[in-house]
Amino acid sequence: MDSIKKLKIEDIQNQFTDPNVILAMESNFFIYEALKKQIKLEPQYRNLMTIDGIGKILALTIMLETGDINRFNKVGQFASYCRCVGSQRLSNGKKKGKGNTKNGNKYLSWAFVEAANFCIRYNEHAKRYYQRKAAKTKRVVALKALAHKLARASYYVMRDDVPFDSRKLFC
């Protein structure tokens, strides 16, 4: 893969003889160069990868789907956009309806649930938090609660441009 990234347009014309292969390789080369210019890895990408459970793909997904983090004034707005908070309306402890559950970004919702699943595997504090929640309620609700915590942590990591600190999240 690295040898393909190092290719230059002249190398393609010298290495291949079939005009169809040359055309295909040149097309892919130009697409690759255009994508390199368009997709810039922000500093927040590096910091997102410090969160347990978030790897390269999830960090890219979160970074690109979020856009400019400063458009969210508060962490609650970001968590709501990530579909990590409920939309029930309660009055005196009784359910009185629910809001629009489809508001927000479904890809961020997916990314944080995936991150929560991985975080349970690799972070002992997260695993204990999940087990405490799962003992009191359904496992899906416990997983979504952990996803909500990760979304909140991601907001601060991206906004403040700092690495993740597990002790702050699970104290």
Can you tell me about this structure?
There is one protein chain. The chain is mainly alpha-helical and 171 residues long. It has two domains: 2-38, no CATH class; 43-169, no CATH class. Helices cover 65% and strands 5% of the residues. A two-stranded antiparallel ribbon has the order 1-2. A hairpin with a 2-residue loop joins strand 1 and strand 2 (94-98). The longest helix has 22 residues, at 139-160. It is elongated, with a radius of gyration of 21 Å. The protein starts with a helix and ends with a helix. The model has no long low-confidence stretch (mean pLDDT 86).
In short:
The chain is mostly helical.
Task: Provide the descriptors you would attach to this structure in a database record.
single chain; 171 residues; two-stranded antiparallel sheet; 10 helices; 65% helix
